[in-house]
């Protein structure tokens, strides 16, 4: 049972680190101060979709 918890923890860490890389990989403007207030709705939608897929995977894993 401990091995399953460690595997789940490692998977979760890699999953969220991937989400962080996606959010940081978008175009980096030269002037960050001018574009700091702009919200990238596409990135937010994609992050929510990834979180929902992760939740569905987790529930499916627990159901079996």
TrEMBL record:
Source superkingdom: Eukaryota
Segment forming the signal sequence: 1-25
Residues spanning the membrane: 44-63
Keywords of the record: Membrane, Signal, Transmembrane, Transmembrane helix
PANTHER family linked to this entry: ARABINOGALACTAN PROTEIN 20
UniProt protein name: Uncharacterized protein
Annotated source species: Digitaria exilis
